[in-house]
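Sequence only, no structure available. Ideas?
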Amino acid sequence: MLTAYFDDSGTHASSNIVLVAGIFGTEWQLRSLDRLWQKQLERPLDRANPPLRRFHATDCYNSTNEFLGWSRTETDFFSHELRTAIIDSGVSAYGIGIQRSDWDQTITGNLRGFRKAQQQSACCWLQLW
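Reply:
I predicted one. Tokens follow.
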């Protein structure tokens, strides 16, 4: 069985582009990713900074919330460490971009309802047999 996690960006009205990206893998690959990811959150920058509760790319990039006071070098290196965890875990990644006008023509009716429900959580997941 494969499990997939995905998230979107740009589904708000003022966006010109919609992006959907995520990862998928076997149970073993996702457990490996979770272990490697948690290690980075618990020991950011090899314990140079306090543990993190979660990673949010916007906060990291802008040095806000849990990343307040981090330098650009620190945030860039930490992002690199998380990307390395993804690669080392063996999961696969995917992504797609579409013009917002095409998205609006394609995602209609019940799919819009699904999207609104999905926005309640940070991401969506799927299991494929």
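DSSP finds five helices and four strands in the chain.
Hope that gets you unstuck.
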